[in-house]
Amino acid sequence: MLFEYLSRNRLRVLMYHSISSCGDDRLATTPEMFANQMRFLRDGGFQVLSLEESCKRLSSGGDLSRAIVLTFDDGYGDFLTEAAPVLEEYRFPATLFVVTKMKEAEWRNNGNRRPLLSWEVISQLRTRGFSIGSHSVTHADLPSLQESELERELTDSRAAIAQLGETFVPFAYPGGRFTPRERDAVEGAGYDCAVIVGGRWGNGPETDRFLIKREPMLASDSFEWFRKRVNGYYEAHFLWARARGIDTR
Predict the structure, then answer these.
(1) Nearest to 77 by CA among 130, 121, 112
(2) Whole-model pTM?
(3) Contact of 132 with 98, CB cutoff 8 Å
(4) What angle do CA 134, 140, 146 make, to 5 degrees?
């Protein structure tokens, strides 16, 4: 059973935020850790796919063995200085989910209101091969919005990204918060797919394209955690324990 699971066609989508050495930011991955993680993916023979390509393979039943998608939420300025050079070195595609009308991460409640990428830089990153997706207009809490407000958050941000020339436009729910109403509104606004937060089992042909699961990368994560996670260790451990009646997370 374990071998069958580990060899199954499953897609893992990793969710990063800031690539920086901010010790008080639980969503930050240090530049050193990030570089080590990307080197491990390269040396380990993983398929690092674009989100667009991965959606095509999910729909067609294509090869997703050891497949990884890299995503970055919010659009922090350190993506340009810390993440982009490493990704370019390994020729890894990535999707950057940007908040289209904000200059700082004002929604962060821990004081980490660092600057976000300017629209000019975002456009330049796209010409360098990175994909741009929507993280709404203002990073609003979508379930709390009135219908008209929700529509503006979705349609205005999608239009701004389409103006960059993107023809495949994905969406990331701000704060990972959504209900069926928001899921349906994202599809209705013309997005090609949407990503959520969480999902230890990865994604397969059964995955709703507007609820693609992602695994958050946190400051507390060790390199060993990363290595085991992308290799399916924790899922295999869970199945092994359940088969023997052992209670595990």
Answers:
(1) 121
(2) 0.92
(3) yes
(4) 110
CA 233 – CA 249 distance, rounded (Å)? 13
Which pair of tokens denotes residue 57? 């393979």
Domains and CATH numbers, the chain: 2-243 (3.20.20.370)
The Cα–Cα gap between 162 and 6 comes to: 38
CB atoms within 10 A of CB 82: 21
Distance CA(49)–CA(68), nearest Å, equals 6
Q: Which residues pair with 248 in a beta bridge?
A: none
E strand residue ranges, the chain: 11-16, 18-19, 28-29, 47-49, 67-74, 95-98, 131-134, 170-172, 193-195, 215-216
Helix (H) or strand (E) holding 87: helix 84-90
Cα distances from 223 to residues 33, 80, 189, in angstroms, run: 7, 23, 39
| pLDDT tens sequence for the chain (249 residues) | 544 555 567 899 999 999 998 777 889 999 999 999 999 999 999 999 999 999 999 999 899 989 999 999 999 999 999 999 999 999 999 999 999 998 776 766 655 667 899 999 999 999 999 999 999 999 999 999 999 999 999 999 999 999 999 999 999 999 999 999 999 999 999 999 999 998 767 898 889 999 999 999 999 999 999 998 898 776 766 666 666 777 655
Q: How far apart are CA 149 and CA 240, in angstroms?
A: 47
Count of positions (residues) in the chain = 249
Q: What are the CA-CA distances from residue 126 to residues 13, 50, 97, 171, 172 (Å)?
A: 20, 13, 12, 16, 18
